[in-house]
Design a protein that fits this description.
- With 151 residues, this protein is an alpha+beta fold.
- The protein has three helices and nine strands.
- The longest helix has 14 residues.
- The protein is globular and about 50 Å long.
Length: 151
Amino acid sequence: MSAPSPRSRAQRQADTRERLDGDVDLWVASASPEGEPYLVPLSFDWDGQAVLIATAAASPTGRNLIATRKARLGLGLTRDVSMIDGDVEVLAIDALAKETGDRFAARSGFDPREYGSSYNWFRITPRRVQAWREENELRGREIMRDGRWTA
């Protein structure tokens, strides 16, 4: 079985944006200040500029994101993945506009505001995005660099 022809950067960007607009869950990879990795699936919302997630501040992910302010997100399937490296802004659970929290809750089916101050919002602004399906798409996989789409 041969791999399909590689997609253009523009098509990879369009496919990634479609996933950001339509998917509900992604993988969040973080690390402690000592470098201990942690990976967890979480629901998210995308506002066109940043990914919004919520988790307990005391969870491994919450502690890691608070400490390092960096995350790697995995969106999609193993053979059709978008990897997003981003900078993390930590927000109190009551810091967002009601409409933003309502949008997250409607999309994810989960409202972290119900858990009060034990939860935080984490706004992750992409600075690098890579997208590929097969080996033939490894070249040209970087579709965002320094926070700017390359296509």
